[in-house]
Design a protein that fits this description.
Layout: E1 4-11, E2 24-29, H1 35-43, E3 60-66, E4 76-80, H2 101-107, E5 111-119, H3 126-137, E6 142-147, H4 154-168, E7 173-175, H5 184-196
Parallel strand pairs: 2-4, 2-5, 5-6, 6-7
Antiparallel strand pairs: 1-3, 3-4
The structure holds guanosine-5'-diphosphate.
Guanosine-5'-diphosphate (GDP) binds near residues 29, 35, 37, 83 and 148.
Organism: Silvibacterium dinghuense
Pfam family, one: MMR_HSR1
Cofactor: Mg(2+)
């Protein structure tokens, strides 16, 4: 799918969030899960300027997703949230995050879907579980996306999927690879379905 992404802004406080007018999709995951790679693969463009520049890591980075190259209003926003999981033992997922992240996740009216990224090569992690529980308690729609699926064989993939579903207590997981593009079509379909509701 060809889209025309445009980097909008990095927000460090709620006052800087874009006006909530169109559906928003949040990307969440532990650092190094492959979030930047996935955003780049989905957006298929360096225009998105997804980077791990230190200045951006504690902010929410917003991207407007346009259907075409014209200046027509975007129909969708992507919100790239800071990675978590630096601290080995953290009381809660939010203890590592700037204060405005938690209210963003609970209060943002246009947040249509939270994509919770986990690494398909790593067993279920406590921090991922904490985030999923937090979002479920906030009544947020979420989909778990397992990255780097190209590193697993067919059998290993099925096993990893079953283990993650069980460990994270979810019914289904989307397996994707930014490297091969596997699963990205399904992910786009999931994003568009959530945005259309
Ligand atoms: P972020 O910290 O979550 O933004 O993670 P990055 O996108 O920077 O990726 C972290 C590491 O995982 C890098 O070394 C990437 O090359 C690697 N990586 C990311 N996505 C994939 C993937 O789909 N397949 C493989 N094999 N490696 C990946």
């Amino acid at each position: 799918m060809q889209v025309f992404p445009k980097f909008l802004l990095s927000a460090f406080a709620p006052a800087q969030f874009p006006k909530p007018e169109i559906p928003e999709i949040a990307f969440l995951g532990r650092s190094n899960v492959g979030k930047s790679s996935l955003l780049n693969a989905l957006l298929g463009s360096k225009q998105a300027k997804v980077s791990s520049t230190p200045g951006r890591t504690r902010s929410i980075n917003f991207f407007a997703i346009h259907d075409g190259p014209q200046k027509a209003a975007p129909k969708l926003l992507f919100a790239d949230l800071p990675g978590y999981g630096y601290a080995k033992i953290s009381k809660s997922i939010s203890s590592e995050w700037p204060k405005f992240i938690e209210p963003y996740l609970t209060d943002r009216p246009q947040l249509a879907l939270c994509l919770c990224l986990v690494d398909s090569n790593i067993p279920p992690q406590e921090s991922d579980m904490q985030l999923i529980e937090f979002l479920a308690n906030a009544n947020r729609r979420l989909v778990v996306v397992a990255t780097k699926a190209d590193r697993l064989s067919g059998n290993g993939r099925a096993k990893a999927k079953a283990e993650l579903c069980q460990g994270l207590n979810v019914d289904d997981i989307l397996m994707v690879s930014s490297k091969t593009g596997a699963g990205l079509k399904d992910l786009w379909a999931t994003i568009q379905a959530a945005a259309a509701e």
